Request: fold
Amino acid sequence: MYFHRLRDLREDRDLNQTKIAALLHTSQTVYSRYERGYQTIPVEHLLILADFYDVSVDYILGRTNVRELQK
Reply:
């Protein structure tokens, strides 16, 4: 379910999978598996991506449709 949000967030910033994989210190292949839902994304990577995109982990996981962080 969350893989669609991962792709959407990345594409909204005009980034490719290789750049996001570098941010996560992983390979493009592994990151691609996250987006396609073939591999579970580690919590550490979720937290990095939530901070990078300035959204909640719940948004990435599809538990909420509120994109902006409540500050």
Summary: The chain has five helices and no strands. The chain has a mean pLDDT of 92. Residues 2 and 61 are 4 Å apart (CA to CA). Residues 43-53 form the longest helix (11 residues).
